[in-house]
TrEMBL record:
PANTHER family referenced in this protein's UniProt entry, alphabetically: MAOC-LIKE DEHYDRATASE DOMAIN-CONTAINING PROTEIN
InterPro entries noted in UniProt: HotDog_dom_sf, MaoC-like_dom, NodN-like
Organism of provenance: Empedobacter brevis NBRC 14943 = ATCC 43319
SUPFAM superfamilies: Thioesterase/thiol ester dehydrase-isomerase (SSF54637)
Record's signal peptide: none
Protein name: Acyl dehydratase
Residue span(s) of domain MaoC-like: 15-127
């Protein structure tokens, strides 16, 4: 894990990979809980029998938004940014879903610092994020995740 204390330490990673998270298994229970939370109970996610017999993947798949919702959890395994008053999840740009995540797949986040800009004391950070699927050459998604860090003086 990388520990960052200020704008200058963050800036040193610009154009470089910051790191990779641990592998995380997405199981059916997690998919079902996400379906309950979002009211998205489409059978391709929640009905293993129907998915096996009628689905294109022969298994249930994780919701795309479930995989996106893992960003904060996986990001915390890559970098700890200290000396901040506040962190704001500002946006996700250039999102492309590339591959379905089958139930019981292991995924991990890789993060590269695409850019960092000082906006009058607020650091706007753009992280090039890729969600890798273990033993699959194609990522689940690629995206530019934008954070705003309010560092202490």
């Amino acid at each position: 894990m990388v520990i960052i204390h200020n704008f200058e330490e963050y800036k040193a990673f610009e154009g470089k990979e910051i790191g990779k998270s641990d592998w995380h298994t997405i199981n059916q229970e997690q998919i079902n809980r996400f379906a309950d939370a979002t009211l998205d109970h489409q059978w391709i996610h929640t009905d293993p029998e129907k998915a096996a017999s009628e689905g294109p993947f022969k298994k249930t798949i994780a919701h795309g938004y479930l995989t996106l919702s893992l960003i904060p959890y996986l990001w915390e395994q890559i970098a700890e940014v200290r000396n901040i008053k506040m962190l704001i999840n500002y946006g996700i740009e250039n999102l492309k879903f590339g591959q379905a995540v089958l139930v019981d797949s292991e995924v991990r986040l890789t993060a590269k610092l695409k850019s960092i800009t000082n906006l009058r004391g607020i650091a706007k950070v753009v992280i090039e994020a890729n969600l890798e699927i273990k033993d699959n050459p194609k990522p689940a998604y690629t995206a530019d995740v934008v954070f705003l860090y309010h560092f202490n003086d």
